[in-house]
């Protein structure tokens, strides 16, 4: 990627997950796995590619659930305000 990576400060007593290709630090192994698949796809092996695909699918599922919750909240808020307008308006 052409974007500048943010600097991650990891305390000395904490464990950091570092990318073996660019030495970037991550707080979670899942983030490093996603980074390797997105930024170094030509350098990872089959096991790393499989781990990336699993992590990517997990992220996608989490985003879908989040979107459904937000949509449900907005619909509930809309009908709550509509009902309040009918009763109070």
Automatic annotation (TrEMBL):
InterPro entries with a match to the protein in the record: DUF7410 (IPR055833), Znf_C2H2_type (IPR013087)
UniProt keyword annotations, A-Z: Membrane, Transmembrane, Transmembrane helix
Domain of life: Archaea
Protein name, UniProt field: C2H2-type domain-containing protein
UniProt-listed Pfam families: DUF7410
Residue ranges annotated for the C2H2-type domain, each copy included: 19-40
Membrane-spanning residues: 70-88
